[in-house]
Design a protein that fits this description.
The longest helix is centred in the middle third of the chain and has 21 residues. The chain has eleven helices and eight strands. The protein is an alpha/beta fold. It is globular. The chain folds into two domains: 184 residues, no CATH class; 76 residues. The model has no long low-confidence stretch (mean pLDDT 94). The chain binds iron/sulfur cluster (SF4). Iron/sulfur cluster binds next to helix 5.
């Protein structure tokens, strides 16, 4: 069967993305039939520990494992008392840029970037404006000059994205922006969930790995943490669909740079081991804070206990 037509490209960077990241025309990897079983086996003991701890604590709620939980495994104190998320210029700009890119891949490619950016502002500024903790609440008290500057910066990020990312609205391809991915372990005792920024999937269903997962970054690169997040998404898709992605990639929007990692069972096994570690730690911590294991490091910046914690490094 003939595959989908090659997406049209208008810049050299788009052509490179089609060749090198989408791997256009390259054969897709086949998948070992027992891959999912082998990955699940790495979490079995941890899920058993969670089920036992939950029963001992007379709890019924599932454990939810997200990229945020995984990023806090360094210290029990950080898991219990992380600094609350606060809206600020950089993260609001990133969220708006993601919203604008979501619109772009959902059919707004032909519209001026400024208009798409302004529409993204309007959409997010209208989402729960009465909630004082919402982004809408933060956006709605920006003075007009700040609003214009933010919309201008988001339009610039969208233009940078368009320079690299071709219009993939072609038959046989499907691009999903901000699609929630969920899967469960131990019946429904543990829920793994995440929201990859972009997933490019093929209509072909032949058991081969045919999905590309992309995370978009508009701020400072965070190296290993970004790789770990993507690997977690790759694991989620593998467990949910029974077939892994063929590649996962970070697109640094401002630089137009892509870092990609190809399908590897060893890498997925590492991701499964991190999930197992998160589940085991949650089981250990369930009885209460008495037995917390504290470990100081750079992550203490994100912990509410740091001002009087005995093992936090001096600021
Ligand atoms: S300040 Fe650091 S060491 Fe102390 S509880 Fe928080 S993350 Fe752990």
């Amino acid at each position: 069967m003939a595959g989908p037509a090659r997406p049209p490209t208008t810049t050299a960077a788009q052509a490179r993305l089609v060749e090198e990241v989408l791997g256009w025309g390259a054969p897709r990897p086949s998948v070992a039939p027992d891959l999912v079983e082998r990955l699940l086996a790495r979490t079995t003991a941890a899920v058993g520990a969670w089920l036992a701890a939950r029963e001992a604590a007379a709890r019924t709620a599932p454990l939810v494992v997200t990229k945020t939980r995984l990023s806090r495994l360094a210290c029990d104190g950080l898991q219990r008392d992380p600094e609350p998320y606060v809206h600020a210029w950089a993260n609001a700009r990133g969220t708006l840029a993601h919203a604008a890119i979501e619109q772009d891949v959902d059919g707004a490619r032909g519209e001026p970037a400024e208009r798409v950016a302004a529409a993204a502002w309007h959409r997010l500024a209208s989402d729960r404006p009465g909630d004082p903790t919402s982004l809408a609440s933060w956006l709605n008290v920006r003075p007009p000059d700040e609003r214009d500057r933010m919309v201008g910066e988001v339009a610039g990020l969208l233009a940078a994205f368009r320079e690299v990312w071709p219009d993939l609205d072609v038959p046989g391809l499907r691009v999903v922006a901000e699609g929630r991915v969920r899967t469960h372990l131990g019946g429904r005792a543990v829920r793994l969930q995440g929201v990859p920024d972009l997933m490019v999937t093929s209509a072909a269903r032949d058991g081969r790995a045919r999905t590309l997962v992309v995370d978009l970054k508009t701020g400072m690169p965070r190296g290993q943490q970004e790789r770990d997040e993507l690997r977690f998404y790759a694991l989620l898709l593998t467990l949910r669909d029974g077939v892994p992605p063929f590649r996962w990639a970070t697109l640094h929007v401002t630089e137009g740079r892509v870092e990609a990692e190809d399908l590897s069972e060893a890498v997925l096994a590492t991701a499964a081991d991190r999930v197992a570690d998160a589940i085991l730690q949650a089981a250990r911590m369930l009885p209460g804070p008495e037995a917390d294991e504290l470990r100081g490091g750079g992550w203490c910046r994100g912990c509410r206990r740091r001002s009087d914690c005995p093992v936090a490094p001096a600021e």
